[in-house]
Amino acid sequence: MNQILVALALAAGLAAGSIFDAAWIIVRDTHFDPTFNGVNWDQVRAELRPRAEAARTPEALRAVIEAMLARLGQSHFAVVPAAAGGEVADLSGSPGFEFRLTDREAIVVTVDPTGPAAGLVRPGWSMAAIDGVSVETILEGVGVQSASPMARFEAWRRVTARARGPVGASATMTFSDDAGGDHRIAIRREPESGQRVQVGNLPTLTLRTSVRAVPTPSGRTAGVIHFNVWMAPVDGFVQAAMDRFRDATGIVLDLRGNPGGLALMVMGISGHFLDEPVLLGRMKTRETELRLNANPRRVSAAGTPVKPYSGPVAILVDDMTGSASECFAGGMQAIGRARVFGTRTMGQALPAIFSRLPNGDRLVHAFGDFVTAAGVRLEGRGVLPDVEVPIARKPLMEGRDPALEAALRWIDGAASATPRLHRDLRPGRGL
Amino acid sequence: MRAIGGREAVLRHASLRAVGTFAMPAQGIAGTVERVAARPDRFREKVSMSGVGDMQLGFDGSIGWMVTPMTGPMVLTGKQLEQLRRDAEFDAALHNPAGYTSLEIVDRVEFEGRPAYKLRALRTNGDEDFEFYDVDNGLLIGSIVTRESPLGTMNATNVMSDYRAFNGVQLPTRQVQRVLGTEQVVTITSVEFGGVDPATFAPPASILALVK
Fold first, then answer.
1. Tens digits of per-residue pLDDT, B69-107?
2. Are A269 and A400 part of one and the same domain?
3. pLDDT in tens, A160-173
4. What pLDDT score does A145 carry?
5. How far is CA A367 from the centre of its chain?
6. Residues A205 and A182 in one domain
7. Does residue A211 sit in the same domain as residue A348?
8. B105 vs chain A: nearest CA distance in angstroms?
9. Cβ B130 vs Cβ B119: under 8 Å
């Protein structure tokens, strides 16, 4: 159903109130916490339903439902418009680079070598303005400096919504380099490179993977595996990568910028590094408690028996590492099977599903709360790296990756100290 | 038993292959399903979902297994294996007394809007399932079961409807399973009895490598 049909549905009396009610009921019946995070859910309905009834446009109704969901103060509650034509803004075009927000700046961290910014923009540059609007203005009223991961995510989302746009549309972006020089560049947004993956009502995601062998400072070899979302094709990719790096000194899993996906994949991917069905964490729903145990991967892609990798494992994260990535990184950290490098993660770690509302919009709603095997709740907190490596412009300008460098140094040390020894994987033990 | 065609009709067949569609409507997920089964307890199911791939489950008489693109290959053990073996019974409708401590109609209730007899099935291992039989025609219209899964214990409600006769046996062509707040709908479009090659039930190579 497109935007026009949603409006017609409203005009025909499909009743904004009933659509609002549908969203309210779904949350009432499926929220993992019967106290609704301390919110009086009945009262929220009583207060906001009149506003929903008064809504005359799809956007107005969505805003009321979003306001209702915001009262929960939790991630993974949102409304997704019915179809691409109904998006509030078309953000399908990418400028071809990624940025991260520090306290004061939007810093370019990667540039897609095949994208529209290649050769124009460099990692380490600070994005100052988009189409004449300063990043400072875009972030007005959002607590970038806040310790709240939710606030930081909202800040990132706002800048992203400006940087992206329709495919083919150009934006003029202003960057400053480390020497204080300004660069005003017109970038024509393009579709993201990668494999399109569509699962049900989930928005179409673009999967990007990479794998490479990297020397450690002492000349050993580490396998660096990167994937940007947890979608089914990742399993085969990681399987092939692990078959390639089975004898490597260490493995680095780069989950920076990976916002999650199919949470059950945590069981399969973690099994490449665990020879027992070790508990990584629990998803607590209203009715039951689901266990995320590793599924030891004792067979290669070719169908031959193998041992799961037992060497040192490092995980790279940043503040755009979320959801399933946090369950994985936090779970592996909790059992001492991996060491985490980078910056604190998103803190949005609630398992969620999509449900369809009567007007065709989709409601994202969390049905569980994730707690690591060590009892740490990640929602609102995130995964705290074992080794904090803040994002800094200078090394990026020099083409360096300090988080990866720290991980490789640790792999060297870990390989020397504990060469493939059996580890005690109970929470609080291990590395 | 009479409602589905009688004991003789059930025992006349030794294997079947059913195909149809799979959907999780609220999540917008759609796909296909193929189920193959044979007496006494051979079973294999493949659900193919767009964007996810093939989810496979099987039991060959001794090995219970699951392969999904999310978890990789898994050999089922313990209670999961025990329950899969039981659920794979080709003649489950006959309720072999050896598998039960008691089978008892405990209530007359409304199930999915239909008057139904509620059967309490207490297994010899202590598991308790409830089955619901339509008061008017005696057909099984649902069940409430507790099953172990790789994620832990789950309660599921199954709703069966749209019975059709296939080679003298009435089978539900619409099966809805509600679990963890989601609803999965299987719609069977064809059923063929007999002719299933026993090799069909052999676990895939990735599973055989795990049990070597």
1. 999 999 999 999 999 999 999 998 888 899 999 999 999
2. yes
3. 999 999 999 999 99
4. 62
5. 18
6. no
7. yes
8. 27
9. yes
Residue B64: domain span:
7-211
pLDDT bucket at A275, cuts 50 / 70 / 90: very high
Mention every residue, 6+ apart, whose C-beta is less than 8 A from residue A48.
Answer: A20, A64, A67, A68
The nearest CA of chain B is from the CA of A200 a distance in Å of: 4
Q: Give the CATH number for residue A162.
A: 2.30.42.10
Could you tell me which residue, B30 or B2, shows the higher pLDDT? B30
CB contact under 8 A, A299 and B50: no
> CB neighbours (10 Å) of residue B157?
17
Asked if residue A273 belongs to a domain, the reply is: yes
In this complex, the residue of A235, A289, A299 whose CB is nearest that of residue B70 is: A235
Structural domain boundaries, residue A289 = 196-417
In chain B, which residues have their Cβ closer than 8 Å to the Cβ of A365?
A: none
CB distance A270 to A331 below 8 Å: yes
The answer to whether residue A364 scores a pLDDT higher than 60 is yes
Distance CA A319, CA A255 (A): 10
Q: What is the pLDDT of residue A397?
A: 94
Q: Which residues of A touch B (CB under 8 A)?
A: 29-30, 197-202, 231-233, 235-236, 239, 262, 264-265, 267-268, 271, 283, 285, 287-293, 295, 297-299, 303-305, 353-356, 362, 367
